[in-house]
Amino acid sequence: MHRLRTTVSRLRPLTAARTAQSLPPPLPRPPAATDGGLRTFQPARLLNTPLASEPFLNGTSSNYVEEMYYAWLENPRSVHKSWDVFFRNVNAGVPPGAAYQSPLSLGGTPPTLSGPQTAAGAQADTQRLVEDHLAVHTLIRAYQVRGHHIAKLDPLEISCVDFDDTSISRFVSGFYGLAESDLDKVFRLPKTTFIGGDDGGLPLREIIRRLEVAYCQHIGVEFMFINDVEQCQWIRQKFETPGIMQFTEEQKRTLLARMIRSTRFEEFLQRKWSSEKRFGLEGCESLIPALKTIIDKSSESGVESVIMGMPHRGRLNVLANVIRKELDQIFCQFDSKLEAADEGSGDVKYHLGMYHKRMNRVTDRPITLSLVANPSHLEAVDPVVQGKTKAEQFYLGDSEGKRVMSILIHGDAAFAGQGIVYETFHLSDLPSYSTHGTVHVVVNNQIGFTTDPRMARSSPYPTDVARVVNAPIFHVNADDPEAVMYVCNVAAEWRNTFHKDVVVDLVCYRRNGHNEMDEPMFTQPLMYKQIKKQKAVLQKYVEKLVGEGVVTMQQYEEEVAKYDRICEEAYTHSKDEKILHIKHWLDSPWPGFFTLDGQPRSLNSPSTGLPEQDLVHIGNIAASVPEQDFTIHGGLSRILRGRANMVSQRVCDWALGEYMAFGSLLKEGIHVRLSGQDVERGTFSHRHHVLHDQNVDKRICIPMNYISPDQAPYTVCNSSLSEYGVLGFELGFAMASPNALVLWEAQFGDFHNTAQCIIDQFISSGQAKWVRQNGIVLLLPHGMEGMGPEHSSARPERFLQMCNDDPDVFPLIVFTPKSLLRHPEAKSSFDDMLPGTHFKRVIPDDGPAAAHPQNVKRVVFCTGKIYYELIRERKNRGMDDSVAVVRIEQLSPFPFDLVKAESDRYPNADLVWCQEEHKNQGYYDYVKPRIRTTIERSRPVWYAGRGPASAPATGNKQTHLSELQRLLDTSFDLSAFNFSS
């Protein structure tokens, strides 16, 4: 009885309403049948009957009764005899309140159907029996829903989880209606459990014991929020089946060997470099066998490539013992005298990535493992890994994720605290972003640097964010390696069965401070007093295995000595390394991309012109609807006619020019992927790459996929309302192959700052830190058009500041137009696109001023939309022959040679840089010193534009126009900068 009281008191009572919420959806209605008259009964007869009319149903959920009824329809023997009698009597027309009849006993003969029994004693006994039966069902459900609340998850036994569950600490007498005398009663269990008993049932005492084993030991399972009955049943079977968590002696020895490697690696680093930061794994050494178990199980299911992302804690151990990076390459990173090679500035050792193909020794199958480089920004790598995984799946034709998968390792504080985790989860089931399931492993050391969970999150668990996508969450005590191994097997099997995300929460601790130099007792004295007394997990596990007779202490010591020798030999060899080659740490190399026939290949752009027949063909596709009986919007018909007219006139606007660029690449077999918010239509309704049938829901047509029978596929996909997550995803996608055009377009260029972390940490500095080449293209709509401070500037100054003017720099940032999308003069002739033509880094003035350069008084350098306002103003002022306007189309790398040629062309002219952006923004600070370098500082470079400001633009239309007019006046006032006059 004490055990019953203790167990029940720890499980929060379920009210009738909460019980209803926890029940699975009702079973599907079976087809009508005639089975001795049993199945002619309509459900409304029962379900429309007030439950209060049946005393024994008082407080019982109608969903529960409905579930029992449909089970009875399928098989009358599948429910308790009392339910069978009840349903038969209702079917026979017995009035409400009298339908229930008691069976004589659990093993007795069912009562006859001649009429309801009316004996008060028999009815009371029957009511008690049904109440007990329902109480047991409720108790089972309580374990399934809340068993994890009382599971022994914390190795320190101080518990970071607070459920504010006061009822757990005391017994609520009579809630379940079960007494000590009921412990030996036998109860038949519902088909939704797997704890055993078959048709003969189990004593309540054994039911409770088995539920305790399944849900309240070192594993806590959160899954009852999942709204798929099949998935819930799959999880129940994995944890409720008695004796299911069993391992062979060979499996236990393998697990021990992995624990030895994980533990001794950290101890070796501590002995050799005690004063070096390494962000070791002490306290969660079971992470290594956890990851290897996931990889083994996935390889067994056919996975050939695993792409991983993680923060810095434990990275060196993962590189050494999971990816199997050469130990001497890891150890040489600790040498302060190591010289950097030419590839880049490099990064700290616990940020680097790795790419390795090897045989999986457990499955004897080849496996490719990739760990993506990641800065200190913890979860920033999450979407990058997902994008890289999606790309590899795409290029392999792996449409279901059976060959390529991702594993993400998280810290508990970051998993709960960083919004990019949520953004990445919300990409997980979107058609153009899904990687068909990710295994998330949380290293839950119950602290974030110096912040404990009470101050770091508002949810009980750090993993609660995963519930938004119905991902099951398996909490496990990391000091129980076998429980960890079992949970990881289940997680990998879940991913390979349902192709959905799953979370493994390794509840552990951090033996040292945030890093090896940190003193944690300053802020967590009680926790670290407990940690100092904590026996290491390897020591506990080897004692367990020796006690079981699986290994001897001598065998254990020999295995330890063997790995220690491996480390020592690698340490000796590491001293021979004199130069750090970052290229050895690439997470996805591009072999052969930077060479051609063994020689370095220039990254300068070759001619990109096309034969006119190709331009006409692609233009006609852009103006057509290739599918039959497809009704488009009337306004779109006008747009397509306009495209056809431009093709006939041999000109392109921006949208048609983009179509030409994409279409020609696709025709050559190069994949194009365009992603971002509203990119299918285009924010400014200019693109229309996806056509929608006006009469058939969800029917679409993508004309770009009709260019050629053997073309590459075109992927154009509207994204979720995320910049950080989606740009990270596309960056990862672009990592996988250099022979693709991957573009991300911001809804407005201003909004890229929500993804600034990806730009700063991966795009601008990735090559220097990690030799991480990437071909991502950012399309950022930009232009000061009076639309306010949040819809004007893509902040070009930020990108220019991050550039290093390397002529081989990647990637490409394109400040795209808004009003110019429909500007009548913003068009190009087919003549500029024919074979032999190139991208124009600088576009010279081709008007009257260029014909008589000696007469020109001023050269106005500019870029972007302001050009069209300048030439309009110049014409209005009649100054076409005295002012030249030169466009710098490529800002970085700066076209020094062409700018010099243009400035030399006009020897008598003032040089002015004009921009519509404010003086402390835009391009001025970048271009002025570079223009002066080209002219050897022989002439000043004046400024015409808006004055300094803190905001990118005014929100007042009239103010915007007056500012524009002032900068135009300054540009064309020939006396403005003539100090000698």
Automatic annotation (TrEMBL):
Per the record, what are the reactions this protein catalyses? Answer: N(6)-[(R)-lipoyl]-L-lysyl-[protein] + 2-oxoglutarate + H(+) = N(6)-[(R)-S(8)-succinyldihydrolipoyl]-L-lysyl-[protein] + CO2
The UniProt entry, under SMART domains, shows: Transket_pyr
Compartments in which it is found: Mitochondrion; Nucleus
Q: Where is this region: Disordered?
A: 1-38
- Specify the Transketolase-like pyrimidine-binding domain's residue ranges: 652-823
- State the superkingdom: Eukaryota
Sorted keywords for this record are: Calcium, Glycolysis, Isopeptide bond, Magnesium, Metal-binding, Mitochondrion, Nucleus, Oxidoreductase, Thiamine pyrophosphate, Transit peptide, Ubl conjugation
Required co-factor? thiamine diphosphate; Mg(2+)
GO MF entries: metal ion binding; oxoglutarate dehydrogenase (succinyl-transferring) activity; thiamine pyrophosphate binding
Principal location class: mitochondrion
Query: What InterPro entries is this protein classified in?
Result: 2-oxogl_dehyd_N, 2oxoglutarate_DH_E1, DH_E1, KGD_C_sf, ODO-1/KGD_C, THDP-binding, Transketolase-like_Pyr-bd
> Is Magnesium given among the entry's keywords?
yes
The enzyme's E.C. designation: 1.2.4.2
Q: Specify whether Magnesium is a keyword of the entry.
A: yes
Can you name a GO cellular component term? mitochondrion
Query: Which Gene Ontology BP annotations are present?
Result: glycolytic process; tricarboxylic acid cycle
Family per UniProt? Belongs to the alpha-ketoglutarate dehydrogenase family.
Protein name (Swiss-Prot/TrEMBL): 2-oxoglutarate dehydrogenase complex component E1
